[in-house]
Amino acid sequence: MSRIVTFVGVVLILVTIGIPIYWPLKTSLSPPEEVWEVGIPKNPTLSNYIDILSSEIPKGRMSEVVGTFTVVSPSALNPLKNSILVATVTVALTLIVSSIAAYNLARFSYRGKRFVSLFVLFAYIFPPFILMAPLMFILSKIGALNNLIALSFVHLAYTVPFSTYMLRGYFLSVPRDLDEAAYVDGCSRLQVFRKIIMPLALPGLVTVAVFSFVMSWGDVVFSLVVLQTGENFTLPLYASSYLWGWEITDPGGLSALAVIAGMIPVILFLSIQKFVRMGLLAGAVKA
Question: Could you tell me if 140 and 90 lie in one domain?
């Protein structure tokens, strides 16, 4: 009986995971007359991928976004480049900020440290859309609207709190004896942090980098606030050019875009999954 329950559970999990992967992949390889059909495409084609990566507007494709946005690039190459830039800068900023904050929480003792530690996670109490109005006001005042680097800074609100706590757990797993031995050898605190703590925390840093990249890569809310012109759109906003009045104007193209957008985080994760597993386990160390 237990084997039957296990088998049914495994099948349900595979179906739940497989359908969201299979459907866009199948649709992206289908010609227009087969996109809504169930089953493997009878006449598979790569035309949907070719269309979204070309500089010409595909037939039946809407080239403008409804509302306040301007004309969107007909090719997905520019939004892809924008998304990579934003995600890469977000990863770099997150690693710098969260590693310093985590080292502070893991190695220093001072009054109010517990309050600071709890305050780090306080950002996750509020849903992101609450920040839309103040962000718009602040960025407009400093002239940072419609700027990709500014969007990377905004994404730190997503990435830094969790990353700080994960790295804090990892730093706590590094014996303090190593710090003391380095001090005896004449190292400063900065040198200990840079030459001892950071190399030993490499799996945790890789895990944080992957987490930050994925969070930034799929962001819509903050991108909607910061970016205003089509030339600066990231992939999630670019996908809105396939919608008109809640109707999908080009399901094949949208599915091809979804497959491309989903492949990059998957490839990144698979290439460094060993470090991610080590970082997650080490990040679970209790203070």
Answer: yes
